[in-house]
């Protein structure tokens, strides 16, 4: 990975934003390796992401931030300057299912996913060996069905201790506490095993089977307090037919789930996903 | 198209059905060009479709039907022996939108769709010239929003007069009367402009746009009295992104709608679609 | 369609291009509705396309062009400022097959394709009625297999007479003269009925059938003097299996051909396709 | 997995085959859970695969085989009766790349792939730990570039020792000896990292990048003595654009490679792939 800075901005749309920002970048000597813009006409909102070669800038990240702050204020920008060499800390929550987490761990292990994974937290022990083989701490938190709060609290504490920048629910089958949702707003990614908004909630493959759909899908979205209603980052589908049993749908769906989650996570950690209301801009 | 007979069967599953039917076919000298079977384990039901070269049979269609009847009775079969040389009469109902009907008419005109189209019925005049250029009668039936029943009745009468075997709703935006649904149960095909069961009812593209989905779709299904709830024949999707306005979704969706409807109709008129409850078996 | 100007640029990459161009646009009061950038690292080349609301500019197109010329010179740009209200003239060359041309004509007729079609030229008469129904002149040019040059010359003359900005080969099965290729370099679009570079030349469906591929495709590309070797604009595929005969491949392939050609043509007439060497940048 | 017998047959086509075979199955009390047929009109050849519930048969596998042999002889059948409870032994050959083998191992470990993996053989050591974590022997065979024959011989010996029914080349980058190809004809599966027949041989991603294709793909095929020319089992593609570098193609292609190989292998070990000449029938 080349060392870059990512200047990610969203603000009210008006004439001259690109000019102002790109002039600023040019003034620092910044060499753009990638630049993306989107004007949302319905909301009159503007989004941009500039990827700048670090070695082309005349100053360091902090100095750039200081220099940019007045412009950001003038244009009422929500913005970040992200240093690509500082890896995001991604904490993974898992339950029993292994396909999504195995996929993420392999992508991480082979260098495809440019992040740190400080720990995996699960309410089952079955994935411990796989996680530890990768050199990642495995935190087992038993959930008492009669009283789930202590476990929820423990998981939030662990997430904080490991300083997670981002939380991935890799087929973690538990409801997330509102407090946890809010703390990781726009930074907690779920994979739902249906093509949302079809088949919200439990047992989507059974529902898909019963409805007789000809495609099944998966959806990765940011978690909000409304179950399966958060901003969608990525979706995909696979063709099925009458020949497939409900178990076949589960099996075929796994491949969609893991690839959809992997793409969503990759785009998130590369700062390619910007949220407006309940929708996303994905500069992929 | 080669001249064939299609022996299409559904019945309770038990040992020996394939043997019994294929022995019958072989006894008549029948040369199978295609044979499809499906055992539905959940409902213990069996489906089969045999396509037999007409010139290989020692007797005509009526004699084959007489000879097969006792077997059908023994196995409690719902069945048909369809002569591929007798073209299905497909009546098309349309409103204002032209993309689906233009697509069907071109496929029919170029010989790709092996059916007759005895007439097109519409509550708008704008498609008359296109339909008539194809040499197909165009029946305009004005719908009075204050009193729709006379129009509904007229449309049912026209469909009967033209002896429709099958009715296609090519983006026909009117509710179908229950009586009409029942008369054409399993023979009336709709195209809905969403990936069902997402976005049932009106304005699915607006709903898809508002939800921020990353794929939009279309669904072709048999019409039942429950709006957009009938057995699904075919579905497909296309990728969209934040760059697409609601009008873009409408435009991109048209291509999915017309290809999904064309595939569904083709499979229907080739007797490849069998219905069980609210689901379909499609031997494509 | 909103009235816009499209400022389309390619030039050697260096620091400050975006800043310079977007400052220029902002200085004219230009409101960007869409902006796309691409830096080709291998060739050190930069591409940009800005779409600007016409009513936001303080001057007309000619004045903008004059004002921009010095910047273009400084940065060694190949550039255009295209007025979206001036429709491109697209001349279509066809042979006997109707699927691609019927698709283009319907998209044009229904207002989806924002161009003029001054005429269709064909070496067969069978499409005359369909073309003329759309109100478009049909020019029949008979090709003598023993001496094709007079026909080639006639077609070039007609193309010039009708002032074609762009030529579409809608399954036109004749070799294009080198002189014609050069005259319409980057403006003549072909649809080849295979997934290039597989199955170059004649009978690609037969070749695909013989090889036993599991997907067939189509490719739209700019025509160059090397048969089927020009810059690819768009490709797509469809799944096939052992059940499909060679005729099925031809039938299924038609749907891919027409959608690939339609997407390529749309992107071309919206100035979204930029060529570098034998490759394209497509800002779709 | 239910215990079944798979009766897989290919033979010259003639009237009555299905009747004869299905009567035989019915006479043994055989309950069909799945039945597939294909008549290849070009070669006048017939293919069938019957999956029969083991507990429905009145006799064991050996007795069924004895009883069926005369029928097979009469119809000149190539055939097998496969017991689904006897797991195939799949030996994997790998080099340095981990994505395909990690994917197969996880599918096997999670019970999705119903086979045994008696060993993995590689000319690199880097995958040892991953393979051994799964409880599978790892055989390192160093290949001397100056004299590859001893290594080739060793690999063939190991394959024989471990009694491989099937060999998978999971991005194994070495040429296979003709003798090895012949010994495992129709049982050795390769994954090639292009959409064949495009980009045969080395560096297909570089070739795809240089040609500027808009989709890249992968192909799984049976290995023959002609490099990348064997019968294709499965293919798939993924969309790319000008934004993707050659390294991006490599990364995106990995996902296609592993899913294509997994589907091909699954179909192979479930006896769903039948070969005729250089093409396959895949009853999926």
TrEMBL record, chains A, B, C, D:
UniProt EC number: 3.5.1.10
Active-site residues per Swiss-Prot or TrEMBL entry: 228
One record GO biological process: one-carbon metabolic process
Top-level enzyme category: hydrolase
Annotated ACT domain residues: 6-86
GO molecular function: formyltetrahydrofolate deformylase activity
Chemical reaction(s) catalysed: (6R)-10-formyltetrahydrofolate + H2O = (6S)-5,6,7,8-tetrahydrofolate + formate + H(+)
Matching PROSITE patterns: ACT
Pathway per the UniProt entry: Purine metabolism; IMP biosynthesis via de novo pathway; formate from 10-formyl-5,6,7,8-tetrahydrofolate: step 1/1
Keywords, comma-separated and alphabetical: Hydrolase, One-carbon metabolism, Purine biosynthesis
InterPro entries membership: ACT-like_dom_sf (IPR045865), ACT_dom (IPR002912), Formyl-FH4-Hydrolase_C (IPR041729), Formyl_transf_N (IPR002376), Formyl_transf_N_sf (IPR036477), PurU (IPR004810), PurU_ACT (IPR044074)
Pfam families assigned: Formyl_trans_N
Keyword rRNA-binding in annotation: no
Residues spanning the membrane: none
Similarity comment: family membership: Belongs to the PurU family.
NCBIfam families: PRK06027.1, PurU
Function: Catalyzes the hydrolysis of 10-formyltetrahydrofolate (formyl-FH4) to formate and tetrahydrofolate (FH4).
Protein name per the record: Formyltetrahydrofolate deformylase
Organism: Zhongshania aliphaticivorans
